[in-house]
C-alpha cells in the first residue's frame, strides 16, 4: 500500500485516505492558446516508466492538494511537497538522483 | 499446418499423441519485413492476421518482448459485448463481436466463444435512463440489445439479490449474443494462423529503438539486433507511451493497473455475465467453475502489474451485496495488468506524425472484446492508409475536440 507524508498536516497518510490527481506541474492554457498547446495541456502526459511528479489530495484528512515524486516501476515514494510550487524543489530532486544516479527530468 | 478435427483426434489417440505439430514456428528475425507489428497481444496478432487474410501482405513479423499473449490479453476477464452508445464504438465493437461468432471455424482453433449473454444492471434511476438511451441507440445501430425488468433479471440469474439494501436492481441492459471466450486461445489461434501464412512471430525480443530517415520509419532496434521495415505498427497497450517516445511523438495515454481475481471452482451457478456498475463489480463463471471477478482500475500511474488491495476489497464488497452467496468463497488467484487509458476512454487507431508508423492502443480496461474488429480495421488502415472503422479513432481527435466519449456514455469499463 502506498503511503505519503502530507506536507501540511505531517501525518503518514495511506492511499485509502488520499485521492490521486494525475501529473503535476502542467502548464495551463486558456482560450487564446493554439490547438496544440491546448491539446497538450488537456490530454498529453509524460506517463513515464520511472520517476513521476504527481498531484494527490489528502481527501479524508486535511482536504488539501499536495505534490509527490514517486517511481511508477517500483512504487517508491521520494518525497512530498506543497502544491504551491511550479517546479520540484531541489531537496526532492537530490533525493531522486541519490536513489537513481543519472536520472534526468523529462520534458 | 495440419488441421485440427475429430479425425485428427482419433488418429492421434491411436498413436500416443506423438503426431501433434507445434502450433507456430519460432524463427530468428530476418533483415527486413514489409510490415513489423510490435506487441504479440491479441490486437497485434489480429492485425497481422487480417493483413495477410484481407490484404495479401504476409512478409510480416510480430515482435514480442515477453511471450505471446502474456500482456493484458492473457490477464483479462474475457467479457465480450458491443452495447456501446456512440456510433463509431458500436461499429467496431459489433464488427468484433460478430467475428467472434465464427472465429473458431475461421482459425480452426477452439476459442470457446460462449455467447451466454451479458447483463449490465441498472441500480439507480440515472442508470435506468442511461441504459434505455443505449438500448435505443443500439436499435438504430443494428446492435441487438434490450432493456429488461427486475423479474427477468432474477429469472436469467437466480443468485442475484434484486432487492439489496443500498441499490435494488431496477432493470438491466441485456445483450443476449454477448458473452465470453478463452483469452489465451484467441492469441494462440491467431499466432498459429499467422505462422501458417509464413509470418514470423518473434518472442523474447524487446524493441529498444525506432529508426527514422527523413521523417519516415526505416526500422527498429531490438534485443535481437536491427530489423528494417516499410511500415511499423505499435500495438503495445500500456507501453504505448514508451514506444511513441522512441519514435519521437507523444500520445494522450496514461498507464494504470487494473486487477481481477478468481475464486475456487464451484458447481455451475450462473450462466450469464453480470456487470454491476454502480457498486462497481462484475462476475461470470468459467467452464472450470471458478467465479471470475473484476472491478475498476486504480487511479494512479503504475507499471508494476500490481494494484492496490483496497480496490479489490471494494469490488468484493460490491459483489457480496449483489450476490450474497459469494461471501463464503475462497479466492484462488489475484493479478493485475497495465491498461492504457486515453482522455475520452476510447481507443486510438491512427497514423502518426512519423510516416509509416501506425498506433493501435488505448483499449484500456475493455479491449479483449474488440480484438478481431480492431485487427481488421488496423490492417486496413496500414494497408490502405484509411479505414471506415478506424478513421474516427485517429489521434488527431484530441486536438480537434472530436471525442468518442464512452467514459460518460458507457459509464463503465470492460
Ligand atoms: C484485469 C483485466 C481485466 C480485463 N477485462 C476485460 C474484459 O472483461 N473484457 C475486455 O474486453 N477487456 C478486458 N480487459 C482489457 C483487455 O485485456 C485489453 O484491452 C486487451 O487485452 C489489450 O490487448 P493488446 O493486444 O492491445 O495488449 P497486450 O495483450 O497487453 O499486448 C501488448 C504486448 O506488447 C508487448 N510489448 C510491450 N512493450 C514492448 C516492446 N518494447 N517490445 C516488444 N513487445 C512489447 C507486451 O509484452 C504485450 O505482450 C481487461 C484488462 C485487465 C488488465
Ligand atoms: Zn493533510
UniProtKB/TrEMBL annotation, chain A:
Lineage: Bacteria, Pseudomonadati, Pseudomonadota, Alphaproteobacteria, Rhodobacterales
BP terms from Gene Ontology: tetrahydrofolate metabolic process
Cited Gene3D superfamilies: Folate-binding superfamily
Residue ranges of the TM segments: none
Domain of life of the organism encoding this protein: Bacteria
Name the UniProt record assigns to this protein: Sarcosine oxidase, delta subunit family
MF terms in GO: sarcosine oxidase activity
Coiled coil: none
UniProtKB/TrEMBL annotation, chain B:
Any one GO CC term of the record: cytoplasm
Location(s), subcellular: Cytoplasm
Coiled coil location: none
Residues of the Rhodanese domain: 35-79
Major site of localization recorded for this protein: cytoplasm
Keywords carried by this UniProt record: Cytoplasm, FAD, Flavoprotein, FMN, Nucleotide-binding, Oxidoreductase
Protein's recorded name: Sarcosine oxidase subunit beta
Gene responsible for this protein: soxB_2
Amino acid at each position: 500500500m502506498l503511503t505519503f507524508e502530507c506536507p501540511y498536516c505531517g501525518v503518514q497518510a495511506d492511499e485509502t485516505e488520499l485521492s490521486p490527481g494525475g501529473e503535476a506541474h502542467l502548464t495551463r492554457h486558456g482560450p487564446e492558446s493554439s490547438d496544440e498547446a491546448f491539446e497538450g495541456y488537456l490530454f498529453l502526459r509524460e506517463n513515464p516508466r520511472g520517476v513521476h511528479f504527481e498531484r494527490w489530495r489528502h481527501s479524508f484528512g486535511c482536504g488539501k492538494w499536495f505534490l509527490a515524486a514517486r517511481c511508477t516501476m517500483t512504487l517508491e515514494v521520494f518525497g512530498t511537497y506543497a502544491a504551491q510550487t511550479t517546479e520540484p524543489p531541489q531537496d526532492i530532486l537530490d533525493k531522486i538522483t541519490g536513489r537513481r544516479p543519472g536520472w534526468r527530468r523529462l520534458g | 499446418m495440419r488441421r485440427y478435427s475429430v479425425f485428427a483426434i482419433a488418429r492421434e489417440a491411436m498413436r500416443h499423441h506423438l503426431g501433434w505439430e507445434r502450433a507456430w514456428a519460432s524463427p530468428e528475425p530476418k533483415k527486413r519485413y514489409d510490415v513489423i507489428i510490435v506487441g504479440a497481444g491479441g490486437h497485434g496478432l489480429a492485425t497481422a492476421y487480417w493483413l495477410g487474410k484481407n490484404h495479401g501482405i504476409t512478409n510480416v513479423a510480430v515482435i514480442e518482448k515477453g511471450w505471446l499473449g502474456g500482456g493484458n490479453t492473457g490477464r483479462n476477464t474475457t467479457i465480450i459485448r458491443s452495447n456501446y452508445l456512440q456510433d463509431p464504438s458500436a461499429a467496431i465493437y459489433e464488427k468484433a463481436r460478430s467475428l467472434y461468432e465464427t472465429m473458431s471455424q475461421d482459425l480452426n482453433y477452439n476459442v470457446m466463444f460462449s455467447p451466454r449473454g451479458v447483463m449490465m444492471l441498472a441500480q439507480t434511476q440515472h442508470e435506468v435512463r442511461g441504459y434505455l438511451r443505449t438500448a435505443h441507440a443500439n436499435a438504430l445501430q443494428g446492435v441487438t440489445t434490450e432493456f429488461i425488468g427486475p423479474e427477468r433479471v432474477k429469472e436469467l440469474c437466480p443468485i442475484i439479490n434484486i432487492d439489496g439494501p443500498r441499490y435494488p436492481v431496477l432493470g438491466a441492459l441485456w445483450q443476449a449474443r454477448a458473452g465470453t471466450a478463452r483469452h489465451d486461445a484467441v492469441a494462440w489461434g491467431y499466432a498459429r494462423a499467422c505462422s501458417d501464412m509464413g509470418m514470423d512471430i518473434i518472442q523474447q525480443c524487446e524493441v529498444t529503438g525506432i529508426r527514422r530517415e527523413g521523417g519516415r520509419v526505416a526500422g527498429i532496434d531490438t534485443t535481437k539486433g536491427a530489423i528494417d521495415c516499410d511500415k511499423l505498427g505499435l500495438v503495445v497497450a500500456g507501453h504505448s507511451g514508451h514506444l511513441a517516445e522512441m519514435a519521437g511523438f507523444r500520445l494522450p495515454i496514461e498507464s494504470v493497473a487494473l486487477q481481477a481475481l478468481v475464486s475456487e471452482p464451484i458447481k455451475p451457478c450462473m450462466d450469464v455475465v453480470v456487470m454491476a456498475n454502480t457498486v462497481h463489480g462484475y462476475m461470470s463463471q468459467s467452464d472450470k467453475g471458478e467465479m471470475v471477478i473484476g472491478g475498476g482500475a486504480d487511479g494512479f500511474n503504475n507499471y508494476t502489474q500490481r494494484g492496490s488491495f483496497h480496490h479489490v476489497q471494494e469490488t468484493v464488497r460490491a459483489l457480496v451485496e449483489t450476490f450474497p452467496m459469494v461471501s463464503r468463497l475462497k479466492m484462488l488467484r489475484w493479478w493485475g495488468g497495465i491498461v492504457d487509458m486515453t482522455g475520452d476512454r476510447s481507443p486510438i487507431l491512427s497514423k502518426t506524425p512519423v510516416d509509416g508508423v501506425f498506433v493501435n492502443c488505448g483499449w484500456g480496461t475493455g479491449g479483449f472484446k474488440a480484438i478481431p474488429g480492431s485487427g481488421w480495421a488496423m490492417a486496413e488502415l496500414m494497408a490502405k492508409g484509411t479505414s471506415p472503422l478506424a478513421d474516427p479513432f485517429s489521434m488527431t481527435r484530441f486536438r480537434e475536440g472530436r471525442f468518442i466519449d464512452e467514459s460518460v456514455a458507457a459509464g463503465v469499463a470492460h
